Amino acid sequence: MAQILLTTTVGSFPKPASLLEARRKHARKQLSAEELLTLERRATEDWIRRQEEIGLDILVDGEMYRGDMVANRYYPKPAVVRPVGRRAPITVEWWSYAQRLTPRPVKGMLTGPYTIAEWSFNEHYPTRRELVLELARAIHDEAVDLERAGARYIQIDEPAIHTRPDEDFDLAVEAMDIVTKGLSAYTISHICYGDVPRIYPAMLRLAVDQLDLALKNEDFALLDTFKSPRFTKDIGLGVLDAHSHRAETPDEVADGIRRTLKVIPLPQVFVTPDCGLKTRTTDETVAKLTAMVEGTRRVREELSR
Hints:
The chain has about 300 residues and is of the alpha/beta class.
């Protein structure tokens, strides 16, 4: 029988202090790109090992190579000044590195076209719609490259999808159709926090296998929303509050899963944190994920009796 209640995470983990300092030195041209890459790879391997030790089923690379907007007072908002596209794959090298470190599946991670457009200035395309759809075509090409490299799970994050639900949610749906068209990999879209009831049930039209959502932060209130109409996608069930320093207990996790199974059928449920954990400390992250895996194990055992 296929394993039930697979556990995974949303994507980001906290960076070690040594890597944060290395990034600062690199920005001041006091550390070479090669030296920084070595430290990023070392931190990635450390998080792969931690995930294996904790017992997660589907791993992530932890995004040790990405900067953190939350660590800065401001960030430079990108501007689109000419046609968007790729010269070469952007994420495949890091995904391949992480996957070579473990026999467990590692998710490919992409940011969705709607969010990139929403968080950028459009200084080239006549309309926002043209920008979103052109971004979708480029991201589709990246997703195809990830699949060809061997990625079995591909996550397309759309945290900005709540921004204009009454104005152009159809555009977000159209863009995701382009991104995932023809893919055989299992696809996920993470939609963090925001006014989910305002986009439900429209979000069920997104062309992905799973919607990954934050439920713990509001004590699983979204379950009432999902009772009618019925939630038809798989769900990435957020059972850890990514905004809290406190580690949940296995009992809390198990209780959240049990409550969910009264609303969403067992085969549709994956277990995750509410959002990325990069703002937590390493110890907090390990404690939270350990509780998540243990709480999930308890429910699996209950269901197998």
